[in-house]
Amino acid sequence: MTNATKLALEESLKHLLLKKPLDKITINDLTTDCGISRMTFYYHFKDIYDLVEWCCLEDARIALQGKKTSSTWHEGLLQIFDAVMENKPFILNVYRCVGREQIENYLFQLTCNLLMGVVTERSKDIPITDKQKIFIADLYKYSFVGIMLDWIKNGMREDYRGIADDTATALYGSIDNAIRNFAARNKTAEMHTE
To answer: Is 127 in contact with 187 (CB distance < 8 Å)?
Structure first.
């Protein structure tokens, strides 16, 4: 029942965002639209922004199910764009009302999980540290998020499939190369300490 209530609140929030901006939506608007009590809302969320964050994370989780491998990361990137596009009124409204930081955090969560899965898979049995894996994933995460934020800032008009294809083309083989470079550096450092 708990998850069903949260999903119903998410649906109500997205429904209301089609009618008015986020900063004009009240808890009462949500609970009336959803058919629940204010107490029930506060049982699940501390405020509307907490609900917004949960919506973003839930959408991220759904968008990336099964798309965290090197053979599917391009498809995963497309699914991130799909998820953002499906929620265009929500994303644009949050971007305008709450600010870039909230959307940035949402996109960081989406892309980090995707990229960490790819880096972990591609570095299996290669001697690099967890810290180095995180650094590689973060490097690409910041690139993806920057590109997506520009797309959102410009009203999400450009065909995102082209952006995803260009990103995949530009990065082809670079994650493997980064992993090899760290492994080579680690080996050199190891030889100098012997």
So the answer is: yes
